[in-house]
Amino acid sequence: MMVLLEINLVIGSIFAIIGLASCTFHLAVEITAKLKHLYVHTTRDFIISLMVFLDLTQIIIRQIPVILNYHYQHWILGRGMCYVAIFFVELTPAQSLFLMCLLIYIELFGKQLTVKQVLLWLAVLSMVVILFSIPMIMQANHEDIGGYAECYVIEDWDGNHWLDYKSYVVIYAIIFLLVPSVGALAVIIYMYSRTGIAPSKFLIAMVATFTSITLPRLVLEITLILDVWFQFDLWVTVHFLCLYRLASIPFIHLLIPDTIPRIKNVVRGVRSLHRVRYYYSGQSSAPHTRIINNDDLDTNQSINREDDITNQSSSPNLVSIDA
């Protein structure tokens, strides 16, 4: 048991470092592309960056504390961090899965959402999760036991809340984790069987990652809560797998065609003149991008090149939707 725990601690530490670096790099590239390289972010780009930000928050507030807690066998981060960690453990997983569902809504159904709409819906979901999680947060406890600080949730709620601990965990798992995970997978399968058009590799990888990590943990949590069965080694492994996922989105994002060119432009300090988005006839996935560099163009040449591209959009098979 201790050997498996030590292996997970080592791997978890490596993934925490990778996650911190990759998520920070992703956000830095997107912010730089927006501010210095005239890159026009779509709602999809915004949602992905928001998911990366949430994962970065979880790495700092959840993954690192869990690793330290397992390593030292007690809580070393203080009372305040104990309550903050428990709060975000309830909030951020539901937010991430909700944003994944919005990506499916945009990509598979061709629906358009503005950034304000995304933030509004996310705020509504967050309020629902927070209100539902009040009993859990109120039962968070930090105390010294045998000279060591411990951070945990009191499972005996003594009838002070409208539901007990077991009911809370099961209902939370079904509504905020199981439904969006299974629902996203079911929608992808249904749309493919109906249209015959495969979703983008990015979307498939995103849903597969979330689903394959979320479902095993839900099964173990529910069996533990209902006192059906519990195996510590398996629980630790699955728990850490959920933490490993926090480093995945920046790498999955590389499956989108315009990601690597944008990273190269930002890293090289190349300023782009214009960004044109195209829908090709018969294309159902998210539109491709074209970045035109103006390194060797003077102002007049740049304007002429831009006009040429705009004129091209009038061809029957190529339609410019934002220029």
Keywords:
mainly alpha; globular; 5 strands; 323 residues; single chain; disordered C terminus; Rhopdopsin 7-helix transmembrane proteins; three-stranded antiparallel β-sheet; 67% helix; 10% strand; two-stranded antiparallel sheet
Structure in words:
- The chain has 323 residues and is mainly alpha-helical.
- It has 2 domains: 2-261, Rhodopsin 7-helix transmembrane proteins (Rhopdopsin 7-helix transmembrane proteins, Up-down Bundle); 271-322, no CATH class.
- Helix content is 67%, strand content 10%.
- It has helices at 2-36, 43-72, 78-109, 115-138, 165-195, 201-225, 232-244, 249-252, 259-268, 299-312; strands at residues 140-145, 148-153, 272-280, 288-293, 318-322.
- The strands form 2 sheets. The chain has a 3-stranded antiparallel sheet.
- β3 and β4 (288-293) form a beta hairpin.
- α4 packs antiparallel against α5 (165-195).
- The radius of gyration is 23 Å and the shape is globular.
- The chain starts with a helix and ends with a strand.
